[in-house]
Amino acid sequence: MKRKKIFITTLVVFAILFGTKSLLWAQKSQEDRISRKTEHMAKKLDLSKVQKEEVYSINLKKIKARQDLKSTKSEMTRKERKEQLTKLRFEWKNELKTILDEAQLKKLGIE
User: Fold this and answer.
1) Which of 47, 48, 89, 107 could share a disulfide with 52, CB 3.0–4.6 Å?
2) Residue 89: is its pLDDT beyond 90?
3) Looking at residue 76, what DSSP letter applies?
């Protein structure tokens, strides 16, 4: 019985912690999220300042296109939305290929 109480208490604590984190993430603006993603990419890929600015603009463009796609959700079928998302991802990767070198693309998993 004691183990069960400890287990349930642990689950509740984790649920509260992760719920709070996701709530805080949802409240951040798109620009904050993009900045954070770009900073993460800059550290991982060792981007130059110029590359970092270009990656930021590409990420911003991608997010805005996804928002536009999300706003037309009721007008499109699920299959059409999936095709559009695949197209956006393909365009994003192609734009990154023009900016990043081979080693950076490999680290990112784009080849």
Assistant:
1) 47
2) yes
3) S
